[in-house]
Amino acid sequence: TEDVQFEEYKKVAEDMQGQPVIIRTMDIGGDKELKCLDLPSEMNPFLGYRAIRISLNRPDIFKVQLRALLRASSFGDIHIMYPMIASVEEVKQANAMLDECKEELTAEGKEFNKDIKVGIMIEVPAAAVISPILAKYVDFFSIGTNDLTQYTLAIDRQNSKLDKFFDSHHPAVLRMIQMTVENAHKAGIWCGICGELGADQALTKDFLAMGVDELSVSPGSILPLRKIILETDVEAYKKSKQTK
Question: Residue 191: exposed, middle, or buried by beta-carbon count in 10 A (0-12, 13-18, 19+)?
């Protein structure tokens, strides 16, 4: 229910004591199941009915979550993030539903942060390619490297037989990341990385050189990554890469 979600989001927002909290909207499908939705079996679930596609098709579920997030935003710095975006129209539709929720809450006299930040996941090549356009409609990007690698290389990351072909360091993947970061900065918004690559210490210096603003990692990876970041002379590293 809206109230149950609101209480959970409120608790996180209050516990973070003013630090930003990015909450991804319902990201079900692919390798993430939710039995209560009773989703149909699909031949290619990673290419199917999932994430924002479900949300936009089920406003009865999506708007409940958006309303709860908005209400909780008055208790901390909550940001909303839409997953699996592949087109500008999807962002427009999601933002339109968010605006509807704002109007409803205003009419009900419920408080929320009217300037709540909204971002999107960059997980498919289409989103990376049109990132200059998408940047006009959001406040930040977060690059989901697991799915971005999967879709860029056309490799099922759940298939163990393909492990030797699944190369998250592939030049095409890294170029997608760099292009997205550059386009975000040109539009004046920030761009982070989540997914397993964020904690890949072999790429930390490269991400710094690209200008990545944030690395989302598990707690155990924070100190090793912080050490690399503090010890890296970014300009010197850029020059060393150029001479190779």
Answer: buried
Residue 138, classed as helix, strand or coil, is coil
Q: How far is CA 149 from CA 8, 144, 173, in A?
A: 32, 9, 6
Q: Which two tokens stand for residue 193?
A: 């990385």
d(CA 38, CA 156): 23
What mean pLDDT is predicted for residues 113-136?
97
Q: At CB < 8 A and 24+ separation, what contacts does 109-115 make?
A: 110/71, 111/71, 111/74, 112/70, 112/71, 112/73, 112/74, 113/70, 113/73, 113/74, 113/77, 113/78
The answer, yes or no, to whether residue 6 has pLDDT greater than 70, is yes
- Helix/strand/coil percentages in the chain, nearest 5: 55, 10, 35
Parallel, antiparallel, or unpaired for β 78-82 and 140-144?
Answer: unpaired
Q: Is the pLDDT of residue 160 over 90?
A: no
